[in-house]
Amino acid sequence: MKNLITRVGTELIRRRYQSISELISNVYAALIHDLEERKLIRNSPFDAAPCRGATLLDLDEEGMTAFLRRAKRGRGFPLPIDATSFELLSHLNLLDEDKPTHAAMLLFGKQPQRFVMSSEVKCAHFHGTEVAKPIPSYQVYKGTLFSLVDQAIDFVMSKINLWVGTRESGAEVPVAYEIPQEVVAEAIVNAVAHRDYDSNGSVQVMLFADRLEIWNPGGLPPSLTLEKLRHPHGSVPRNPLLAEPLYLTKYIERMGTGTGDMIRRCREVGLPEPEFSIFDGFKTTIWRKSSSMTGQVTGQVTGQVTGQVTGQVDPWVERVLRACELKGELKSIELQEVAGIRHRETFQRNYLDQLLWDELIERTIPEKPKSRLQKYRLSKKGKILLEDLSKNKK
Fold first, then answer.
1. Are 158 and 72 part of one and the same domain?
2. How many Å apart are CA 368 and CA 372, to the nearest integer?
3. Which helix (H) or strand (E) holds 40?
4. 217 within some domain
5. Which of 132, 136, 290, 316 fits as disulfide partner to 158, beta carbons 3.0 to 4.6 Å?
6. pLDDT higher than threshold 90 for residue 245
7. 4-18, 78-92, 354-368: which range is least confident on average?
8. Among the three residues 117, 144, 169, which one is the final residue of a domain in this structure?
9. In 3D, which of 243, 237, 354 has the Cα closest to residue 306?
10. DSSP state of 277
11. In terms of domains, do 186 and 241 share one?
12. What is the domain count for the chain?
């Protein structure tokens, strides 16, 4: 021991402890400090902590450029459109010693779920009022937070009823969803933005015949209660580094008005007030109109979009087929608008391709699938399905 003390010399620090418990406490604190210094554990919030193993090469340059355009247009973001990725990330406080944080990866990562596996969003549609197999439609969405929110909203809006009016009062045809889109969007954005990312659970969006449920890991901040959500309250984001970019792109506000706006909009359209609860996480329940059961079709129609076992058809499917029946031939963008899907790639991958696969519609130029003149029309199988739907409604 003397040799050891002599060798370390002035680097040795001597301390006297009054008890074993005091010694253990100090050793534990020193160990924690050492692990933090070596980045083996973190002492900062999840969104601000460095994303282990990630580099700036794991971030999507195009996604950051798109963000700059949207933030500048929506909120007057100060950085120029040609700002470098490093400038953007630094401005948003998304770097830790020049390395991307978890927030940077979730917002702009090429493959966010490679680093934060539980950040995916699971969406399911049940034709009844309980969770039951087989599940008619089930999707697990991956991507950035912006993409996750968009895809989850599109999933719900494509499966709820849509009222289409006439042009009696103007050139535009009035449309109204069974649940206002801003209500669905607010609930989903809240779940993604304010969830507990330390949890291994994923956000779940479940649409039933009588309600929509959105569940996320985590509860409320200490300063908020379930009752306070129903009244004006302060904004207390769990993940502020995620909330800021979502605010800049107008996905959220920063006034604590979101839940109040949901309640108000549901009242305006005659829906019951949304319910908020905490049980193994936070859950928002949005009630549907009592007459919102989807139509039945006689016989079995193959394919995911029409329900392989139950023989039921999603509202968006019927809307698209009716539009083709009425107008004859439609472009992809026109079908996308009828379906109520906001983003082209999502519509192409999850909706249009499925209609083609199920042979409910067909291309007008089948030998050139990617032709700029390409349109789509109702197929024989699609006509049969519409006839069955019409008979069933009589």
1. no
2. 9
3. none
4. yes
5. 316
6. yes
7. 4-18
8. 117
9. 354
10. E
11. yes
12. 3
> Would you say residue 17 lies in a domain?
no
What is the token pair recorded at 22? Answer: 């005091």
**CB-CB neighbours of 234 under 10 Å:** 11
Count Cα atoms within 13 angstroms, Cβ side, for 255. Answer: 8
Same structural domain, 229 and 362:
no
Q: Are residues 245 and 271 in the same domain?
A: yes
Q: How does DSSP assign 281-342, residue by residue?
A: SEEEEEEPPTT-PPPB-SS---SGGG-TTT-B--HHHHHHHHHHHHHSEE-HHHHHHHHT--
Most confident among 1-10, 111-120, 310-319 (mean pLDDT) = 111-120
Domain that holds residue 227: 120-287
Band of pLDDT at residue 289, cut at 50, 70 and 90: confident
Q: Which of 117, 145, 177 is the last residue of a domain?
A: 117
Q: Which residue has the tokens 């604590």?
A: 256
309 — pLDDT class (breaks 50, 70, 90): very low
Spatial CA neighbour of 299 closest among 389, 383, 208, 209? 389
pLDDT greater than 80 at residue 313: no
